[in-house]
Amino acid sequence: MSFIRSPVTIFGALNLSAIAGSTYYLRSHLIYNLEESEARSDEIEGTLRGHIGLIEESLDRLEGKATEADRGKKMAEYYGKRGRDDGKT
User: Fold this and answer.
1) CA pair distance 78, 82, nearest whole angstrom
2) What is the CA radius of gyration of the chain?
3) What pLDDT is stored for residue 85 in this prediction?
4) 20-69, pLDDT tens digit by residue?
5) In 3-state terms, what secondary structure has residue 57?
6) Helices (H) and strands (E) in the chain — how many of each?
7) Which is nearest to 72 in space by CA: 47, 88, 45, 50?
């Protein structure tokens, strides 16, 4: 059992535990950053969809296709859609 008390074994074990701890910390930090990035992307996507709806409504009004009842409908539809595009539009 003298190999357990040798300095090489002790420093090796400390080295492995430091590597394992730093790997765990970096992994958890990376996961947190990815979740934050996804949340920001979702907010930006919703904002862009809302702006697309506003632009389409303005275009419809300029072309004379829209009625007063249609006002805000496309913007609410696009903004509320969120998530991945299902390819139907």
Assistant:
1) 7
2) 28
3) 53
4) 999 999 999 999 999 999 999 988 988 888 888 888 888 888 888 767 66
5) helix
6) 3, 0
7) 50
Sort residue 66 into left (φ over 0), alpha (ψ -120 to 50) or beta: beta
For 44, the token pair is 């930006």
Tokens (6 digits) for 36:
């934050």
Query: 39, 9 in Cβ contact below 8 A?
Result: no
**Both tokens of residue 76?**
């609410």
The CA–CA distances, whole Å, from 69 to 61, 74, 81, 83, 89 equal: 12, 11, 20, 27, 22
What's the CA gap between 10 and 8, in Å, rounded?
A: 6
C-alpha distances in angstroms, 1 versus 4, 6, 7, 12?
A: 6, 9, 13, 16
pTM of the model: 0.56
SS3 label, residue 87: coil
